[in-house]
Specification:
Layout: H1 2-19, E1 26-36, E2 42-46, E3 49-57, E4 60-70, E5 75-82, E6 85-92, H2 97-102, E7 110-117, E8 120-126, E9 133-151, H3 153-157, E10 160-165, E11 168-180, E12 185-194, E13 197-204, E14 214-221, E15 225-234
Antiparallel strand pairs: 1-4, 1-15, 2-3, 2-14, 3-6, 4-5, 5-8, 6-7, 7-9, 8-9, 9-11, 10-13, 11-12, 12-15, 13-14
Organism: Litorilituus lipolyticus
Pfam families: OmpW
Signal peptide: 1-20
């Protein structure tokens, strides 16, 4: 009986050792990442004067990638990357300004498409569970760069031109967990908040002589929640 108990204890100890994160471990993950921007709308100004128009940004899902380097069983650093995300920018016109001016109701129309990359560097803290389930919390800094900003065909035809969005620095906070399938493979889920804010600028020309033109702008608090489910491999 004593020998059996000793054997079980040794097996348990061996199992925990193989599952524990160790200094120098590198965990590479890949899977689906969805960016869900703040649902609030950003007001649109023309030559510094607010208009009844507003815009919002929709969700997008892409291939997410990240690499985690462990300093010990608790502390690690993570770099989040992804293939470029492309979002539709939706125009909101509850008072029908565009219909009155252009004869086309653009309320709810896709005004533009923007593409961005949101690399994020975070420090992670893993909680000791003594099991294959390894929850963690993290905090870090994000840099988001926007590119390929383009108005869609209908807004471009009525004079919307030269859309640009400023890059953004902000903080990031996350919770997540790895579930280790064996000493190398694991499944990961995470949710993080990223502070992303950008200033959008554009030109509104007057090709149809309707008397509406100027320099447009909108301060957009993207502030997305980012959800991921990934498969990981530890080296």
């Amino acid at each position: 009986m004593k020998k059996s108990l000793l054997a079980i204890a040794l097996l348990s100890s061996f199992s925990f050792t193989t599952l524990a994160n160790q200094a120098g471990d590198i965990l590479v993950r890949g899977g689906a990442t969805m960016i869900s921007p703040d649902s609030s709308k950003a007001g649109v100004a023309l030559d510094g004067t607010m208009t009844p128009l507003s815009i919002s940004v929709d969700d997008n899902t892409q291939l997410g990638l990240n690499v985690v380097y462990f300093f010990d069983s608790n502390w690690a650093v993570e770099l989040l990357a992804a293939t470029p995300f492309t979002h539709d920018v939706v125009l909101h016109d509850p008072q029908g300004v565009t219909e009155a001016v252009y004869g086309a109701n653009l309320d709810g129309a896709i005004l533009a498409e923007v593409t961005h990359l949101p690399p994020t560097l975070s420090a992670l803290y893993y909680f000791d569970t003594g099991s294959a389930f390894k929850p963690y919390v993290g905090a870090g800094i994000n840099y988001t760069v926007f590119f390929d900003e383009e108005f869609t065909a209908t807004p471009a035809s009525v004079g919307f031109k030269n859309l640009e969005l400023d890059s953004s620095f902000g903080l990031s906070f996350q919770v997540g967990a790895d579930y280790e399938l064996n000493k190398n493979w694991s499944v990961n889920v995470s949710a993080r908040y990223i502070d992303i804010g950008t200033e959008a600028t554009f030109d509104l020309e007057d090709p149809h002589n309707v008397g509406l033109a100027g320099n447009g702008s909108a301060s957009i608090d993207v502030d997305p929640m980012v959800y991921s489910i990934m498969l990981g491999y530890k080296f």
